[in-house]
Amino acid sequence: MSEATRIVIVGGGPGGYVAGIRAAQRGAQVTVVEKDLVGGTCLNRGCVPTKAILGSVEAIHKARAGEEFGFKVGGDIEPDFARIMERKNEISKKLRDGIQGLFKRSKVELLVGQGRIVSADRVEVETTDGVKSLAADKIIIATGSEPAELPFFDFSQPTVLDSTAALEMEQVPKSLLIIGAGVIGCEFASIFSELGTDITMVEMMPQMLPLEDKRLAKQFQSIFRKKGINVMLKSKVESVADYGDNSITVDLEGGDQVTAEKMLVSIGRRPNTQDIGLEDVGVEMDQRGYIKVNDRLETSVEGIYAIGDVNGGILLAHVASAEGLVAVENCLGGNEERDLSVVPSCIYTMPEIASVGLTESQAREEGFKPVTGTFRLGASGKAMAIGEDVGYIQIVADEKTDKILGANMMGPHVTDLIHEIAVAVRKGLTVKDVGDTIHAHPTIGEAVMEACHDVHGESVHVAS
Ligand SMILES: Cc1cc2nc3c(=O)[nH]c(=O)nc-3n(C[C@H](O)[C@H](O)[C@H](O)COP(=O)(O)OP(=O)(O)OC[C@H]3O[C@@H](n4cnc5c(N)ncnc54)[C@H](O)[C@@H]3O)c2cc1C
To answer: Rounded to whole angstroms, how far apart are CA atoms 224 and 189?
Structure first.
């Protein structure tokens, strides 16, 4: 019998732990090295904690609308922030325990410690019991990323937060200045505005959520404005005027000042590539410090792969996991390429936003003659029934072939609905294919069918 391939994975986030389990399923002998908590950023400082808090906030929002829905609760609805944070921690822990259980069942060894690659076939791990040396036939680097810091902010000040620190706050701040109106900034704004925080967002770009469709971002901005969130576009913080004990004041370019109890800096991420031995073994990085990989996710050193945030592709948990599966196949002799052509992008705000494929303007830039169809959720019975009828579904298609090129959506559960269109784009389905598929009534999902009908000017429920 041939010996099992020994795979050492450095980092136990959604890239590393998924790769570990799959490799073990394929018969490899696997060690996942994790210096902190399994589940990585996603489960402990990112996707899951933010959505757990959002779950509480959505419940509060619904309870506040009790009279409209036909029930009364005694007194005001008061958020219990300590319980909200405790619930968030409980959910993360339950999921971490779940991963450890999966590791045990699939015989993945978890080694807690700081990993360092010393050669193409050896990883050293600094553990509480001293340094352990692991022999490896293949190595997968999955060390992820950290919040990026702006040099002129002093992050040791209690008033200056990154996303990790914001998830550990003990009290709801009265006011919050958010630098950056990208996905993470908007998710925090949605959460804290519902909890009563006075929010100002400062964004350099001319639109918030710069990667989303222009029209969608504009509508979303007006929803934020209605909630009382002050969104300052084309604005830049120049310097900090004052780090007070309980407040911070910043100077904006142009002379304005903003003061808030706390400031959250959400301007992007930087890769965890320091002190893991990359320079010593010759793993190349790009100018921003991300590890360079080919389409098979192999680095410049044969036998060493890099997946997830650390390779700077698309910084999302589902991409890290998908890349983990590709890297494992290649570690075991396969020849798979990552395919990032269809990646759903979801923003967990109130309302939610989701998109996939091309926007109308991107489709035009790529040489298509795009046609669109839209269905507004104000006309959806289900959206009205659940009291969330703000938003719309827009389908983008190619006029010539009728193929669906993409979609952008805003409204309840669109982060679940987007996958129908992801499959359609990936498989080259036409507007007619999806539009002819019977969708259940009443659902938010039938808005996708209606939007497809609208591409052909035939939506029964849209007055043209
Ligand atoms: C606030 C926030 C919200 C987010 N929400 C979403 C979302 O809703 N959906 C989504 O798809 N993405 C979301 N993301 C992004 C998502 O968390 C990341 O894309 C994802 O976690 C990347 O996975 P990864 O495995 O590449 O790295 P990570 O999750 O960062 O995991 C890397 C792991 O490696 C470990 N490590 C690092 N160096 C070493 C070393 N030398 N030795 C041993 N271990 C090491 C780290 O401790 C960490 O556990 C969010 C991010 C943030 C910050």
So the answer is: 9
Of 318, 419, 441, 456, which is the active-site residue?
Answer: 441
Q: Distance between CA atoms of 179 and 3, rounded to whole angstroms? A: 52
Cα 32 to Cα 13: distance, rounded to the nearest angstrom: 10
What is the spatial distance between Cα 123 and Cα 134, in angstroms, rounded to a whole number?
5
Q: In the chain, which residues fall in CATH 3.30.390.30?
A: 351-455
Which one is the CATH code of 160-267: 3.80.10.10, 3.50.50.60, 3.40.640.10, 3.40.50.970? Answer: 3.50.50.60
Q: What is the pTM of this model?
A: 0.97
Q: Are the beta carbons of 26 and 156 closer than 8 angstroms?
A: no
Instruction: Tell me how far apart the alpha carbons of residues 163 and 37 are, in angstroms, rounded to a whole number.
Output: 17
Contact 297, 305 (CB under 8 A): yes
Query: Is 56 a pocket residue for ligand 1 (Cβ < 6 Å)?
Result: no
User: What's the gap in Å between 47 CA and the centre of ligand 1?
Assistant: 9
> Cα(390) to centroid of ligand 1, in Å?
32
Over residues 60-114, the pLDDT tens digits come to 999 999 999 999 988 889 999 999 999 999 999 999 999 999 999 999 999 999 9
**How many angstroms separate the CA atoms of 450 and 16, rounded?**
40
Q: Whose CA is nearest to atom 2 of ligand 1?
A: 46
Task: Write down the CATH number for the domain with range 351-455.
Answer: 3.30.390.30
CA distance 459 to 447: 10
The rounded Å distance from CA 352 to ligand 1 centre is 22
Residue whose structure tokens are 């269905």? 375
User: Which listed CATH number (3.40.50.720, 3.30.470.20, 3.50.50.60, 3.90.1150.10) goes with 6-146+270-331?
Assistant: 3.50.50.60
pLDDT per residue over 141-194, tens digit each?
999 999 998 888 999 999 999 999 999 999 999 999 999 999 999 999 999 999
Domain boundaries for CATH 3.50.50.60 within the chain: 6-146+270-331, 160-267
